[in-house]
Specification:
With 118 residues, the protein is mostly helical. Helix content is 38%, strand content 7%.
Length: 118
């Protein structure tokens, strides 16, 4: 959801990579539905495994509870967003998580792109 919001809100001003330390086989249908309600179609997305190469190629790494399984490299900016996991939850439980993620992404964009509004 964070990658989708960042791509949607920042457009080509930010290069977004999305991956997880233990990704599911498919995106949770409740997440797809909740994001569609926000006007963002993620139905074609496929979860990907987080690699060290992806982290090394990034300036900012946002984690959501991956703990020691996430690779750490000097010189990178890391933020760990403590959020409920939407896995195995219905759309009613996913909506507040979606809204928290959107709010954090908006703050991140303001921090990364000061003076710009998307």
């Amino acid at each position: 959801m964070a990658a989708a919001f960042l791509t949607h809100l920042a457009g080509d001003r930010v290069l977004v990579r999305s991956a997880g330390s233990a990704p599911a086989d498919q995106v949770n249908p409740a997440v797809v539905e909740a994001m569609a309600e926000a006007g963002i179609d993620i139905s074609a997305e496929i979860p990907k495994v987080l690699t060290g190469d992806a982290v090394q190629a990034s300036d900012v790494v946002i984690t959501m509870g991956c703990g020691d399984t996430c690779p750490i490299f000097p010189g990178k900016r890391y933020e760990d967003w403590q959020l409920d996991d939407p896995a195995d939850r219905g759309v009613d439980a996913v909506r507040p998580i979606r809204d928290q993620i959107e709010a954090r992404v908006r703050v991140l964009i303001d921090d990364l792109l000061p003076g710009e509004r998307g």
